[in-house]
Structures are given as C-alpha cells and as structure tokens.
Amino acid sequence: MTRAMSVRLDDEAERALRSLQATGLTPSEAIRSSLLASAARLNRARELSAECLALDADEADRAEMMAVASLMESIRAQR
C-alpha cells in the first residue's frame, strides 16, 4: 500500500531533487529512490560495524594478523 506524504525542502534539498529529476525521474521516484539508497547505506554501515567488532573480538584472527605483520616486517628488514 502506498502512502502520500508532504515534505518541506530547504534550498539544498531542492537543488538535489532538481538534479535527480534532470535524470528523468519524477519527484516521487527521486524521493523514493533516495530514501531507499540512504537506508541501504545506513544498513551497510551497521553491518560493517558489527563485522569489525566481531573481528576485533576474535583472538585467533588477531593473533594471525600479528603473525603476518611480523613476517612482513622481517621480510622488509632483510632488504
């Protein structure tokens, strides 16, 4: 089910809407696609944050990372 709503746009948002409309989108299409894209970016940021926290808490992964860093440093020092 669709729902109609009204929004008040400031100058910056108005310019952004005009820019999107210049691609051939209607105002409704531009606003809908922008909302969906913005929500997707927020969700991806949350997913990445959770993945980083999980990796940071993984002691085995951290130990392996330190071992690789040490190996790379020893190879660099040999030059």
Explain what this protein looks like in three dimensions:
By secondary structure, this protein is mainly α. The protein has one domain (11-78). Helix content is 78%, strand content 0%. It is built from 3 helices and no strands. It has helices at residues 11-21, 27-57, 59-78. The relative contact order is 0.05. The model has no long low-confidence stretch (mean pLDDT 94).
Characteristic terms for this protein:
mainly alpha; 79 residues; 3 helices; single chain
Question: What is the CA-atom radius of gyration, in angstroms?
Answer: 23 Å
Estimated helix fraction: over 70%
Low-confidence stretches are none
Mean pLDDT: 94
Q: So what's the oligomer here?
A: single chain
Shape: elongated
- Please work out how many helical segments DSSP would assign: 3
- Biggest β-sheet, characterized? none
Brief overview:
The protein is an all-alpha fold and 79 residues long. It has one domain. It has three helices and no strands.
What is this structure's SSE topology?
Elements: H1 11-21, H2 27-57, H3 59-78
